[in-house]
Amino acid sequence: MQNDFLSAFILLLLVLDPFGALPVFIGVMRSVAPERRRLVALRETAIAFGLLLAFLLAGRGFLQVMRLSPQSLEVAGGVILLIIALRMVFGHGDAVGVASDGSEPLIVPLAVPLLAGPSAMATVMLLASRQPQHTLVWIAALLLAMLVSLVVLLAADRLRRVLGEPVIAAIERLMGLVLTAVAIEMILAGMKQYLAAP
Question: What transmembrane ranges does the database entry give (predicted)?
């Protein structure tokens, strides 16, 4: 049981990838008032956790009711990530889909797809479907992985001060290029699975 928990925690932490999310998170938070950033990070992480928990408990049934395939979820997430990545690369003021007028992000792009992306949704559904008798273990592993992600994101302001704006901007553009490749890979994987399905 302990090995199951540890394996699930490591897997979920790798899928959530909080360190990879830092450049996007910093870019989004640039338009948020400093005194609100911690609250926004906590709120978006809580939303992502709630969504992933819902997918863990009832994701496969929801997709069946809505007549949606996991492939469509993969392609939709890839398209959203592609839009975000292109804006990061070209350095617009709303680089990650958030206006520069001080408005706060809500759900998109931080909770979804940055934390609770298609890969994370698919992972929790896979855990639940393979060993449904260990649902409480999967919930505990998901909660711990989200808490670690929150701690990493809360350190973003400190990292920005240490590294400086030019370095952060360069990292943001570099991560935009990486995200572009990830998004294209997600779209291609979803299309490949859809075409291969009987």
Answer: 45-63, 75-93, 105-128, 135-155, 167-188
